[in-house]
């Protein structure tokens, strides 16, 4: 194995709103794993939630944990069963380790594996650090045409792919998406790439409507214009807002599909609206087999992610990346662990 440092720097969540950079042992890959030197890590809403609240549903932070699960990097070492020719490859990482033997894994639905180990989900460490390990087949080689940041964002892109697949979007479809944030705009791009000819993004925030319009999508201010008579083939919620979901269900034509991506508490749904129109209401939990699709969408230019990155931080600035303090108008915040600190003007400009 190549010469590697015995320790690495890692940003560790020690308690709610308590983050510090620590020295941790550099992980050693198991026979079927690769060691990845981390290049870029996207900040996800789940990271922010763990920082602010210490838990998401049944997943509770009970011991110090490294957050971050949207990542790219370069293979620095390989386990004994992995081709050493992989050393040096740039990769995007699918940040999960299913058991591969349960009924869900064997059927292909490994995202539902009850023994799943997912980055930055307690007690599994994530990627706000210099090195991580992952099983060889979950480190996907990427071409030079894909930037480190875009490669990291193949994780939220995979969420969009999973949502569009679940919605059954096809050629000529009309798709309504609630939420014009990064997930909403990414999902809208995927829907268009899958053949939808009318993709509508609904958001109460004018800045996010402008972002979606800049990507060529029709936009709606739900406070001004109702979508209830739209007759969409599919509605995908990326907002987590109860009013948006209720309206979205009413926006779908008979036989349409509603896919819930955003997190929401229990909400009232009209059985009459769903049953009498035979609407399918479903959700997604992560993804399966999406990285090759994500790579193809990026290399073909059908999806563009770099413009979503508005703020970039070093490893010593993870807390600022999580709080977004001073990051006015931020969309996607990125941490680059190989850099300790990025100058403030570069943070604001999204440059590293």
From TrEMBL:
Protein family (similarity comment): Belongs to the zinc-containing alcohol dehydrogenase family.
Coiled coil: none
One Pfam family cited in the UniProt record for this chain: ADH_N
Alcohol dehydrogenase-like C-terminal domain residues: 182-299
CDD domains xref list: sorbitol_DH (cd05285)
Species this protein is from: Arachnia propionica
Stretches assigned to the Alcohol dehydrogenase-like N-terminal domain: 31-144
Record carries keyword Zinc: yes
Gene3D superfamilies (alphabetical): Medium-chain alcohol dehydrogenases, catalytic domain, NAD(P)-binding Rossmann-like Domain
UniProt KW Transport keyword: no
Record-given protein name: NAD(P)-dependent alcohol dehydrogenase
Taxonomy, superkingdom: Bacteria
UniProt keyword terms in alphabetical order: Metal-binding, Oxidoreductase, Zinc
Gene Ontology MF terms in the entry: oxidoreductase activity, acting on the CH-OH group of donors, NAD or NADP as acceptor; zinc ion binding
Names of required cofactors: Zn(2+)
């Amino acid at each position: 194995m190549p010469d590697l440092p015995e320790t690495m720097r890692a940003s560790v969540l020690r308690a709610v709103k308590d983050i510090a950079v620590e020295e941790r042992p550099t992980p050693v890959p198991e026979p079927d794993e690769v060691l990845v030197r981390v290049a870029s890590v996207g900040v996800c809403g789940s990271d922010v939630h763990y920082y602010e609240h210490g838990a998401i549903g049944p997943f509770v932070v009970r011991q110090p944990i490294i957050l971050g699960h949207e990542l790219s990097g370069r293979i620095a070492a390989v386990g004994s069963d992995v081709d050493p020719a992989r050393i040096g490859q740039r990769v995007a990482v699918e940040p999960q380790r299913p058991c591969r033997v349960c009924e869900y894994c064997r059927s292909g639905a490994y995202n539902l594996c009850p023994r799943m180990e997912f980055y930055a989900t307690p007690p599994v460490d994530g990627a706000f650090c210099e090195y991580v390990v992952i099983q060889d087949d979950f480190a996907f080689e990427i071409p030079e045409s894909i930037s480190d940041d875009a490669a990291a964002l193949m994780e939220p892109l995979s969420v969009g792919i999973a949502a569009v697949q679940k919605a059954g979007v096809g050629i000529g479809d009309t798709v309504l998406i609630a939420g014009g944030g990064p997930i909403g705009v990414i999902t809208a791009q995927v829907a268009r790439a899958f053949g939808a000819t009318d993709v509508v993004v609904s958001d109460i925030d004018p800045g996010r409507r402008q972002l979606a319009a800049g990507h060529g999508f029709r936009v709606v201010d739900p406070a001004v214009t109702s979508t209830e008579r739209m007759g969409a083939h599919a509605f995908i919620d990326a907002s987590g807002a109860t009013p948006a979901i209720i309206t979205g269900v009413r926006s779908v034509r008979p036989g349409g599909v509603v896919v819930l991506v955003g997190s929401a508490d229990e909400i009232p749904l009209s059985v009459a609206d769903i049953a009498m129109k035979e609407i399918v209401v479903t959700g997604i939990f992560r993804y399966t087999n999406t990285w090759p699709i994500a790579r193809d969408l990026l290399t073909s230019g059908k999806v563009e992610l770099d413009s979503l990155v508005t703020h970039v931080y070093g490893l010593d600035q993870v807390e600022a990346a999580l709080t977004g303090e001073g990051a006015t108008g931020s969309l996607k915040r990125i941490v680059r662990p190989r850099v300790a600190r990025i100058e403030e003007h570069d943070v604001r400009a999204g440059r590293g």
